[in-house]
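Help!! Second protein's tokens look totally different from the first
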Amino acid sequence: MHSIGDIAAPRIGRLPDGRRVGIAFTSLANLRIASGGRQEWMRLTEEALRETLAPLGVTRIQLDPVLVDLQPAYPAEPALVH
């Protein structure tokens, strides 16, 4: 299988029509532009990314999205305001 770019932050986004899509980047620089400097990442082949996303029913991978939703998968506890 060919490489789609091997920088991935295994995240799922939504297309304008509501379908879920896996997110991948062709370079670390593109990941940083879209998600900021603190986004964790790992190198994955296309095959590995597809295997990770398949149990979730995600079959499409979007390369180098310009805007990535930075909401955490699990919301943090509400902050206490003093």
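Here's the second one for comparison:
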Amino acid sequence: MEIRLSRPCVEDTTRFIAECHLGKRVMIEKLCDILRSIDAKELRCSVRLGVARFEHEGRSVMIYQSGRVDIRKIQSTDEARDVMGEIADMVKEALSDISF
């Protein structure tokens, strides 16, 4: 899984936004149901826009229908890889069979 630290966070310039990809399309309705069932903090879902946003362990996470994931407040690629693994495990039931 390729992870890229794209730019510093506006809130804290010592941390970064990590961009990665789940490798599959995301079924947003199913994703939102999963996130609601685990009581994801500050959850915002838009099926129409194809995006879900929530807080995970102090980090802001955005998951797009395309499979792209942005994680804010990351310090390193290793930390991003760990967080991405947790997120991928949480949302695996919402991944489509269509890969990219």
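Reply: Different proteins will give different token patterns, so don't panic. Residues 21 and 68 are 4 Å apart (CA to CA).
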